[in-house]
Write a structure and sequence with these properties.
By secondary structure, the chain is α+β, with helices and mostly antiparallel strands. It has 15 helices and 20 strands. Helices cover about 35% and strands about 20% of the residues. The strands form 2 sheets. It has an 18-stranded mixed sheet, sandwiched between helices. The chain has a two-stranded parallel ribbon with strand order 7-14. The two termini are about 25 Å apart.
């Protein structure tokens, strides 16, 4: 530690102590009773059908791909509306926006009819949701816990910055897991958080994402993961902050507010367009075909969120995905919105390619990404990846099919799905990006499935997303006698049936490209 940093830290600590007198602080001695998933409840048409289907495929789990954002939203609503005994949700983000409030209203309605609801959220992006979460927790059938919470419940950017300065070793580690499990019979696992950007609502950038709806043994495994996090040392009841205790009156006001928000949503153009897009209901409504395979849930240990990171035993997901890649013999398709392989990763992919494995990667273009710093980390390895034989595709900002808008026009599309397909058979779908943050800092989870049928559907997603209308293909264009490592890069795509090409990151300003160049000089790769 430098001599200068000591007084800075002391000053920050003094400032933090001043905050304690004016803001609610976390009580580490608050009771945290252990609770676990309830036994499977086969009491609704959905769960009876799930049980019937699973009994015809003993030892296997069934999957449906939720690649459409509206289908993903409606499947969650349908699951909540049909819940009879329990709903467990684990998310990195649960936004206080139109779709977040709609889902909160359906959770409250489920609790009113006797369903136990457990909601576990990472605390990093909790802001306006504070009063909503407090009020929901006041319901006797709803429990809300925050994972790795801030010590001081002041949501200003200055408070958070100060707390990061003092407690950054802990606060820099976040819970990135995502699951939605109903009656311990059906679950949704994948890349989506809860919020307008993930369901094609609102007028901000929309994410092109992917989840799977699952039945069978993998559901109970998902519940076990949830329980480990719910009962971990890093999970605190939302009431653990002193001076913040909602009452029944707060809950009544929140119920009225959420009912009004739900009525407004039902009358919106978005809701009508969603019904038109899903005339036969969502994937969760439908009987019929599932893609079956032997599956397992893979997840980091929650101790990964501790300052020391829990050591190698906590990095379970990284090891599982490495084992998948080690077994590749023909093809690997990777979808990762934030792709920062590092030098060891580039060398590893080079060795795979050298033994004849065809490797294709889809990530965000600079024009599409919502994280310029991460793109700077990726850009450093773009040329070495191409030299190694990796095929690179970058999603265009206006890629994909027409989207349903609720309150305006989206400013573009950004990739958010995280998938891996090996040899057209083994599939990973989950929350983990291929970057240092996911590998070493955040906790992650997902499912690994041995299923050629499911692999085909994920590969169809990849094929659609990498079409020239939807993505730029990045290539090296060596001149005669010039080594590939020194060749210029070229981005190619197609507009209105016409081939287009670029010699720099397409559809970006010179200023943004300059910022990326400067960021590449900063020693921040381990944080990306």
């Amino acid at each position: 530690m430098s001599a200068l940093s000591i007084p800075v830290r002391i000053a920050c600590l003094a400032g933090l102590l001043a905050f304690l007198n004016a803001c609610a602080t976390l009580r580490t001695d608050v009771p945290r009773p252990v609770s676990n998933a309830l036994p499977p409840a086969v009491q609704s048409p959905l769960t009876r059908e799930a049980q019937r289907q699973a009994q015809t495929h003993p030892g296997q789990s069934g999957f449906r791909v939720l690649s459409g954002n509206t289908d993903a939203l409606m499947s969650r609503i349908v699951l909540a509306d049909h819940a009879m005994r329990s709903i467990d949700l684990q998310y990195y983000i649960f936004a206080d926006d139109a779709t977040g409030r709609l889902l909160a209203q359906r959770l409250l309605a489920a609790a009113d009819r006797g369903v136990r609801v457990r909601l576990l959220l990472d605390d990093l992006d909790v802001d306006e949701q504070d009063s909503l979460l407090d009020a929901l927790d006041a319901h006797p059938n709803i429990q809300v816990r925050l994972f790795n919470p801030f010590r001081v419940r002041n949501r200003s950017i200055w408070s958070k910055a100060l707390q990061f300065t003092v407690d950054g070793a802990r606060l820099n580690r976040r819970m990135h897991n995502k699951s939605f499990t109903v009656d311990n019979m059906l679950t949704i696992v994948g890349g989506r958080n809860i919020g307008d950007a993930y369901f094609d609502a609102g007028n901000e950038v929309h994410f092109r994402d992917l989840d799977v709806l699952a039945i069978g043994p993998v559901v109970e495994e998902t519940s076990h993961v949830f329980d480990r996090y719910w009962n971990s040392d890093a999970a605190f009841p939302v009431t653990a902050y002193d001076r913040h205790h909602a009452t029944g009156r707060n809950l009544s006001r929140t119920r009225e507010t959420l009912h009004g928000a739900a009525r407004e949503f039902a009358e919106s153009d978005y809701a009508q367009a969603m019904l038109d897009a899903l005339p036969d209901g969502s994937s969760a409504d439908r009987n019929g075909r599932w893609d079956w395979g032997v599956a397992r849930v893979v997840a980091d240990d929650p101790v990964k969120a501790e300052p020391g990171g829990g050591g190698r035993r906590a990095l379970r997901l990284t090891h599982d995905l490495r084992a998948m890649l080690d077994a590749a013999s023909a093809d690997v398709e990777i979808v990762s919105p934030y792709f920062v392989p590092g030098r060891p990763g580039v060398e590893y992919l080079r060795t795979l390619a050298a033994r004849g494995v065809r490797i294709s990667v889809l990530t965000n273009s600079l024009a599409a990404t919502d994280e310029t710093a991460v793109h700077a980390g990726y850009a450093r390895y773009r040329r070495p990846l191409l030299v190694a034989g990796v095929r690179l595709y970058e999603l265009r900002p206006l890629a994909g099919a027409p989207r349903i808008e609720a309150h305006g026009t989206s400013s573009g599309v950004s990739l958010h799905a995280k998938t891996l397909v090996v040899d057209a058979r083994e599939v990973f779908v989950g929350s983990m990006n291929m970057d240092p943050r996911s590998r070493l800092l955040n906790t992650e989870m997902g499912v690994i499935v041995d299923s050629p049928a499911l692999a085909r559907r994920i590969m169809q997603f990849f094929d659609s997303a990498t079409q020239p209308e939807n993505a730029f293909k990045v290539e090296l264009v060596p001149k005669a006698g010039e080594p590939p490592a020194h060749a210029p890069m070229r981005w190619t795509a197609r507009d209105d049936g016409r081939a287009v090409e670029f010699d720099h990151d397409p559809e970006t300003s010179a200023g943004r490209r300059a910022r990326v160049t400067l960021m590449r000089l900063l020693p921040i790769e381990s944080l990306l």
